[in-house]
């Protein structure tokens, strides 16, 4: 058990007792091959490392979720519409987190030409759990510019995904602009007082 977790178990959430200062935003990601992890850090670079803490969901616990009211979740889809393996292991835990009072933005990675019948499905599945647990969802994103046949991440009867869609397999050249625009959008929706940083990546 990490020292920080141990201290929290003893002192509850009173982080100030153990000198524990958390950032305003937490980003949790799962990643099999590194694409989602890379995007997570590119988002952190835009919001600022002192504004956004990043956690690999493989090492995270429910305790970390409790510390933050502004949360970003990143998830790729694997194996024809399946949830990424570390998120799958955390699924029961995330289904128990109380998201009421929390504002959540999400991004998903997928391959629209290779898996056009399941594009970003895991993003949609995670969104439904988190919303059902009481979160206020932000960061919805236009489906314009993507080609796919079906996606659980698409809002019914609207040309919107429930979060940012990133396709590093087929449209890597669009990722930087998508990140710039989406980070600007969630920066406003999160009502962050800190400046958004210009990043050349
Ligand atoms: C075997 C395999 C299955 C995949 N299945 C899907 C899928 O069902 N839907 C989708 O949108 N993308 C699918 N993808 C694409 C991945 O989501 C994409 O490569 C993503 O960037 C991987 O992220 P990661 O490197 O963070 O794990 C699949 C890729 C592979 C290799």
Describe this structure in words.
The chain is an alpha/beta fold and 201 residues long. The protein has a single domain (23-189), classed as 3-Layer(aba) Sandwich (Rossmann fold), CATH 3.40.50.360. It has 6 helices and 9 strands; from the N terminus they run αβαβαββαβαββββα. The protein has helices spanning 3-11, 35-47, 62-66, 85-94, 121-132, 175-189, and strands spanning 25-29, 52-56, 70-78, 82-83, 103-109, 136-138, 141-142, 160-161, 164-166. The strands form 2 sheets. Strands 1, 2, 3, 4, 5, 6 and 9 form a 7-stranded mixed sheet that branches. β3 (70-78) and β4 (82-83) form a beta hairpin. α2 crosses α6. The chain is globular and about 45 Å long. The chain starts with a helix and ends in a 12-residue tail after the last helix. The site of flavin mononucleotide has 23 residues, from α2 and β3.
- Uncertain runs with pLDDT below 50, 5 residues or more? 1-19
Total helical segments: 6
Largest sheet: 7 strands, mixed
CATH homologous superfamily classification: Flavodoxin domain
Topology-level CATH name: Rossmann fold
Order of helices and strands: HEHEHEEHEHEEEEH
The helix content is: 25-40%
What is the general shape?
Answer: globular
Roughly how many Å is the radius of gyration?
Answer: 16 Å
Distinct ligand kinds = flavin mononucleotide
User: In CATH terms, what is the architecture?
Assistant: 3-Layer(aba) Sandwich
Number of domains: 1
Quickly name the level 1 CATH class: Alpha Beta
């Amino acid at each position: 058990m990490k020292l920080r977790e141990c201290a929290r178990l003893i002192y509850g959430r009173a982080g100030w007792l153990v000198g524990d200062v958390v950032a305003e935003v937490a980003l949790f990601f799962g990643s099999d091959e590194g694409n989602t992890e890379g995007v997570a850090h590119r988002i952190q670079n835009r919001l600022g490392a002192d504004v956004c803490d990043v956690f690999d969901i493989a090492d995270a616990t429910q305790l970390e979720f409790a510390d933050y009211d502004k949360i970003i979740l990143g998830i790729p889809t694997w194996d024809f519409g399946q949830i990424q393996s570390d998120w799958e292991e955390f699924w029961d835990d995330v289904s128990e987190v109380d998201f009421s009072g929390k504002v959540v933005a999400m991004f998903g990675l997928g391959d629209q030409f290779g898996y056009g019948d399941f594009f970003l499905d895991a993003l949609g599945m995670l969104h439904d759990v988190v919303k059902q647990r009481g979160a206020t969802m932000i960061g919805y994103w236009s489906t314009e510019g993507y080609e796919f046949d079906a996606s659980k991440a698409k809002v019914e009867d609207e040309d919107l995904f429930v979060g940012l869609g990133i396709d590093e397999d087929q449209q890597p050249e669009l990722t930087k602009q998508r990140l710039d625009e989406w980070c600007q959008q969630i920066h406003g929706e999160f009502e962050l007082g800190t400046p958004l940083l210009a990043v050349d990546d």
